[in-house]
Amino acid sequence: MITSTLRRVLLVAKHASFQSRCCVASSRVQYSTVYDSNEKTFDKILIANRGEIACRVMKTCKKMGIKTVAVHSDVDASAVHVKMADEAVCVGPAPTNKSYLNMDAIMDAIRKTGSQAVHPGYGFLSENKEFAKRLVSRAGIYNCWEHTHTHTSLCISPSVSLINRLRNPLKLILLRVLPGSYCYPVMIKASAGGGGKGMRIAWNDDETREGFRLSSQEAASSFGDDRLLIEKFVDNPRHIEIQVLADKHGNALWLNERECSIQRRNQKVVEEAPSTFLDPETRRAMGEQAVQLAKAVHYSSAGTVEFLVDSNKNFYFLEMNTRLQVEHPITECITGLDLVQQMIRVAKGFPLLHKQEDIPINGWAIESRVYAEDPYKSFGLPSIGRLSQYQEPINLPKVRVDSGIQEGSDISIYYDPMISKLVTYGATRAEALQRMEAALDNYVIRGVTHNIPLLREIITHPRFISGDITTNFLPEEYPEGFKGHQLTSEGRRELVSTAAALYVSAQLRSQRFLGNLRVSTTPQEQRQWELCVELEKGSHTVAVSRSGSTFTVEVDGVTVEVSGEWNLASALLPVTINRTPRVLQCLSRDAGGDITLQYLGTQFKVRVLSQLVSTLSAHMPEKVPEDTSSILRSPMPGSVVAVSVKPGDVVAEGQEICVIEAMKMQNSLIAAKAAKVKSVHCKAGETVGEGDLLVQLE
Known about the structure:
The strands form 11 sheets. This protein has an 8-stranded antiparallel sheet, sandwiched between helices. Strands 26-27-28-29-30-31-32-33 form an 8-stranded antiparallel beta barrel. The chain is globular. Residues about 1-30 and about 145-180 have low confidence and may be disordered. Helix content is about 25%, strand content about 30%. The N and C termini lie far apart (about 65 Å). By secondary structure, it is an alpha+beta fold. Its main location: mitochondrion. GO terms for molecular function: ATP binding; metal ion binding; propionyl-CoA carboxylase activity.
């Protein structure tokens, strides 16, 4: 029987039945699970997804001796998941509604390849009722998605009358009768998916109307279903979820919790297991109620029950995700279970092999979602490009990287910008955090902008280290937006000294050919230098001396000792600064002394000049910055969904000018000031690049 905590929650129909999912696999982790070659499940599984999650599924399938079929769009023909699969079928052009959401093409691929089962991953068709029905009705396909008796989502309650009005495909006209602040704030969200897509918070009627418009468009683009849910929004909570696992024989387990409170735009950024906040009693209560829910709806497979938890450890049921979660690897790390294998076994009809008392919490695991995003723009707007250099830090101990890309892969405007899921494990939380810090420093990503600066700042933030976090962590700690790592006086000296040592190393190398001096008559090699180093509009006069591979640098009257191998061809620059080991990356370096270094996760532009050149450069004219108040440029690459103005229109400050869709997220661009529209340089349906001029104001 459902307890009183769950009775406080309002049931809202989600327009589809719960589905069992056969599931995904992990790499570079040792499981306590044994892969029994004599236990026959399926001969062939089609993965109706792409990228990282498709690769994840294939890895477990291979361990279980199951052949795999990949589906792909035409632009994904050379993608990693296509190369990993035993077979691959093109299901259409790049737009998701013509490929990965194209049910007819995917059903045809199932028929052609003779696949016995289908795994949908997450996103796309993973929670699409119609797709599940078509699989069930098709003869010859083993049903990995078994219907439960109901499909409901529990939501923190707005009024019953409001929910009833919004239960059908939503009509904005009905919102006119909402009684002002009666139910606000509310969360508007896509009924067919997650990952922050199609999700908005509304604090009044106007924001609700705007949220419905953008959320329904995002939901249709991401999941092929524009239906929405609305629920009461709880301000300042923790987001903690329980992993459940159930079979078709009435057995169900809870596999501990995951803390997912670090979010931006309602999408998780950093997750960990277990949570620093839960005590054993609260953990058990949440786990038991999650299992009760799974049993109440006759659920079978792996699923996630999500809760909001307040400061008093009261927990409120949010929803159940009937699929594998992005962050499932951290549960695998602390339990030793391969969730993909468990889901495939359950889909075939095998009973669970474990009892609740068998489920441990061994150590601590942390996951950072690495995205091709610019963290300096709203904590992450999409970036596109080709990975010109890519090196995962898998040489480090207890580091796992789940990815679906490789060096040379393209990050396009059509799909989610995730590069990988970076997971570290340790016996304690401090150990896991230390390994994450090292992994982020050693992660080489060139060709696209990425969010490693933000990830590293989060995991080293004193508030995060103490466990004092909520879903409002990012806006509270960075109210003016993320600005990157803020240098202390010691950090500034470290960076200036390393840049000076790197500059001198490059100068010395340029004087040599095959290890010998280029000109035999050159006087004895120089060992002392006077340089000027410019950093963040500040200038430092430094004195550098060298002894072997060690440089002694005097900065602002303080002596800093920097030593290292100084391999200028390596992507990584491991150095020791005053006996403290650091790993930097030299992202660029030119003959003019301009150096871009990645230090503590953040990129810093440094200019190193000789004293003479520094004196002469002071006479060079500076470029006047562009006046951006009268122009609107695209902050990201994407496609224009709508243009709301035309030449001659008068717009108010904050008024919507146009909507840009990038990687399944829609972004409303507004006027920076009240003015008349002078010219419009884009139209709906066009593709634009980052920095392209969209609208000009007078």
